UniProtKB/TrEMBL annotation:
It comes from the Eukaryota. InterPro entries: FAD-bd, FAD/NAD-bd_sf, FAD_mOase_fung. The keyword Disulfide bond does not apply. Belongs to the paxM FAD-dependent monooxygenase family. The lineage of its organism: Eukaryota, Fungi, Fungi incertae sedis, Mucoromycota, Mortierellomycotina. Residues 47-216 form the FAD-binding domain. Residues 1-31 are annotated as: Disordered. This is FAD-binding domain-containing protein.
Amino acid sequence: MAPSFNSSHSSNNSRQSPASQSQTTFSSTSSDVASIHTFGPREKSPCKVLIVGAGVGGLMLALCLERAGIDYIILERTQQLPVPKSTIQLGPNTLRAIEQLGLLDEVMQVAKPVSTLTLMKHNMTVTGRMDCLFTKERYGHYSCIVQRSEFLRILISHLPQGKVLWGKYVLEIVNGDAGVQVRCSNGYIEEADIIIGADGAYSAVRQNIYRTMKTKNLLPKSDEEPLKHTLNAIIGVTQPLDRSRFPAAYEQFSEITVVVGKDPLYSLWLSPIVNNRVIWFVSGELLKPAEGENTNFKQSEFGPEAVDAFPPFSGQGAEQAIMDAIYLANHLYRLDENPVHEDYVKIFESYQRRRSPLVKSADQMTHSMTHLMNSQGFSADVKRKLMFALPDWVKNVGVDKMQVRPLLDYLAPVDDKGKKSVISSNAM
Ligand SMILES: Cc1cc2nc3c(=O)[nH]c(=O)nc-3n(C[C@H](O)[C@H](O)[C@H](O)COP(=O)(O)OP(=O)(O)OC[C@H]3O[C@@H](n4cnc5c(N)ncnc54)[C@H](O)[C@@H]3O)c2cc1C
């Protein structure tokens, strides 16, 4: 998520939080900004947050702010929720906070827990099988495949009416002394104290920030490069399948099957999801890397979504977007009543310090996994075989490192049901 702010005043948009009656003081170590704070929504919102994008990250942030008593509005370019064209993977890192928000039962209605990942060669011989059920005991929850649009619908159903403004395509952002102003393609203007870009891979918010940074010579060289995609993928969801022909679609658990193709190399991913359907991806590395800079793709209906910092099937994109929202909400909750510019700087610096190491390790892990699953040749075959043959304790080391399981500081905590506690450097 890309934050932008420029504020030397506090918001006039303060609102009374719905449950401001019962606030309890408790302590927490989740940010560098403050260590003692109140429990429950704030009585008066310290600022107004403008969220661009009603995707996984934007809606999750909205719900976290709603419960924190912080004023917000979401601008979304589409006219309505997307049709159910894809899934997201949610695991212990996010399901604990989802449970804390009281949404776990609803989310599990549209989720299927994953039992195994089976890797096969093009001739359908099994290279290896990986158990995924262990996450429940070790980290507290199964890893689940969730229908994306249904998940978004659940989040929206917990927001008050009118908080998502549909059909608002944000084009321009202007920072001023009195906050930030955005202009949409239809001429609509909205103002707030801070803006959070949750608008996907080709984020308008990020591009606006980069433009400003560039004029001030602050933009790192690496960020001047255009965003490239390195993989192609076609993704689809079947209709409900016939039980006699596809019994796996009716199982309680989803068994993910990956078939690594040959010459030219494409991998086929199949996973049963709820309602007896199966989601499938065909993916492969680009044969001509130059195609990754195709700007038409960027403008297309599917392009902006289909390229992300995390490859779609890595199972990390949505998880990381949700964790961004949790960390950000915890930081915004700590703002002083009448925040000034320096207060915002302080919380965003703290947010970045805490999020960056975790995002970097998730990024490294998913990119090497994706490369391994999509690369060709004898050595890639051997590496895949070796990886699947590793003893559990070795495989677990990598997964343990990514465990955070963050909670919202201002809501009643829920128990960590995982036997393996979060490693201390990851703890919020
Ligand atoms: C086909 C597919 C399959 C995937 N499968 C998985 C998976 O199995 N597991 C997993 O974890 N992740 C998966 N992902 C990735 C995951 O969906 C994303 O990482 C996650 O949705 C990122 O959330 P986000 O909120 O940052 O962005 P998005 O969900 O992309 O939401 C961005 C929102 O911003 C809106 N928007 C964009 N520009 C503007 C603008 N200028 N003005 C207003 N609104 C704007 C968009 O319309 C969209 O609603 C998949 C992605 C795709 C495309």
